């Protein structure tokens, strides 16, 4: 007598077995691929940091990272110190670039002390201070790395996103937008932190004025631009005490 395969019980048993099989396969793949995923994340963070301080393979118009195969070597070459700022405590850590900025932001919302990673690099006789930032765009998360000198003048920037609109908000990672930030001042001469606003009504389309605390907005991407402005002002303001103490220590040395 042949088994009936059109009964409800057979269908349910078959479905349960398939779910178990597929679930097991997915769990196995996730577990086996986890080291490779973590390694790719590590390399990408190193590439982002290097890009912000001008270590990249840019051509005349497009933004290009250093190759993944040499990212670790270049990171060790150019990044001389990794700092973790935690309240009044400043420590050095070789793994500061692995700090999860999203998690640290959540900690701050819960009233916990937030860890702020800062990367000190040397290139062409200049010292660069690279800080990670993270915020919200139109559809999802946006983030970036901003490179500064000791006066919090921007030396370079890299921005990225999870799901902004192609051709509009997604253009925050285009070179023409990121390059506009180079030379922009984050603080006034008197030491007041102003940040940088991605301004729709900016009267400096060629971005020649570097002390107006503004860059030109991307047409049709107002909300994403507002998100970039907000994350710069919110996250980089947290580093002001460090830069002020840095200037004081430099004065003492002189």
UniProtKB/TrEMBL annotation:
Pfam families: FMN_bind (PF04205). InterPro entries: FMN-bd, NqrC. Keywords: Cell inner membrane, Cell membrane, Flavoprotein, FMN, Ion transport, Membrane, NAD, Phosphoprotein, Sodium, Sodium transport, Translocase, Transmembrane, Transmembrane helix, Transport, Ubiquinone. It is a single-pass membrane protein. It comes from the Bacteria. One of its GO terms (molecular function) is oxidoreductase activity, acting on NAD(P)H, quinone or similar compound as acceptor. Its EC number is 7.2.1.1. The modification FMN phosphoryl threonine is found at residue 222. NCBIfam families: nqrC (TIGR01938), PRK05346.2-4 (NF003753). NQR complex catalyzes the reduction of ubiquinone-1 to ubiquinol by two successive reactions, coupled with the transport of Na(+) ions from the cytoplasm to the periplasm. NqrA to NqrE are probably involved in the second step, the conversion of ubisemiquinone to ubiquinol. HAMAP family: NqrC. This is Na(+)-translocating NADH-quinone reductase subunit C.
